[in-house]
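FORM 7B: Structural annotation worksheet

SECTION A. Query
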Amino acid sequence: MEKLSNMKIHIIGIGGTGMAPIAVVLSEMGASVSGSDRSASVYTQYLTDRGISVMIPQAAENIKDPDLVFYSSAIHDDNPELAEARRRGIPTLKRREFLGRMLDGRQTIAIAGSHGKSTTTSMMTLVLSELSLKPGFIVGSSLKDLGKIASAGKSSWFVIEADEYDNMFLGLSPYTAALTKVEYDHPDCFPSMEKYLDAFRNFLNNTQPGGFILLNADDPNQALLSTPPDRRVYRYGIETPSDFSGKDLRVENNGCYSFTFTDGKNNIPVSLNIPGKHNVSNALLVMSFCAVNGFDLDAAGQALGKFHGISRRFELTDEWNDIKIIDDYAHHPTEIRATLKAAREFFPNRTIRAIWQPHTYSRTKSLLDEFSTSFSDADDLIITDIYAARESYTDFGIEDVMNAVQHPSVHHLPSNEDVADYLVKHLKCGDVVVTLSAGDANKAAPMALERIKHAQS
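SECTION B. Predicted structure
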């Protein structure tokens, strides 16, 4: 097949967080890119603004004369565009099958794990950019400091968020495979923890010969992962002896952590501008990568201090009358605990109201015991109906969730409208609202704040 830069490529599901960045990279590489989705979104608008043709909704006639069609995991065989492409004999590939080809010849840094992938990928991208390495990148969010979700880059380096869902990351053959933290997730894809770990083992085995692997020494599950014999393996940690360590952690006046990175010879001060101890671990991974590659560690540490986060990760989205609205994508018990702990450290003397939208029936049911005790740093807890996403209701519902959650002030409010009504009645000056959702519950608090502003204007 011809080079991608000379091809006409159609993407089914182009508006998804995994597909939109790929469209950007392909377009910058010189490919003629088109795509479709079921409905418009911020991502479809982002692509349209960059000259990429996006068709809404999906229909067979959207397939013109592409050389290749590729599609996301959410696309089923009965999709009209996929069916039409196959009927006409046009090559079709899933994202997993396509990514390796797109990144062929690049020094790919693949960052995987159950949590922290987007943030760490973004940190890595900013640091390499600040070191003038001009990397390409794909991340499942918008990198605030660069104003982009993706770039083809201008060097051999390429940083990618490696998603385990549907084994997507097994389509990669990275030069560097790095893990944040590995905890059981996606029960709709992986029926057991062992199957989940197997996916990560296979991911590490795909690392290129002569490449290297970065593991989190503080994560006990990573000790269960075997590594191929001809790869260089390094470990980083805060609590556990390792090749690279983060020491002298402290919360500064800005509510964020500073720490000292050490590789046994150098001691590099790092001061972060995003809250949470979990972000020390994320930054430590990036510093460890820089140490292994012999990059300027002082410059790398300073670059991390310039990182201001990504969209939907502890993002201040609105504020008024000293009421602050924080949006976070947290949808796993560990992520929820980390986000609320960060909120407590960042706003130590304020009332924290958490809005949790459980994400998928399978995840909520499988991890219910862990979810039940994840909200201790919130003063008030609102739980919406379960966001079904790709799933259908079976024998598990919101009643099971409410019976399990242990919190002194917990309320079930089914919809965003219900949540907004509650907040209008209860929000007061100085409150902090933290939305924990991979769905659409982040609309509720801004809706409430607008009503309060209007009522008092």
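SECTION C. Observations
The longest helix spans residues 277-292. The chain has 14 helices and 21 strands.

SECTION D. Sign-off
Analyst initials: ____
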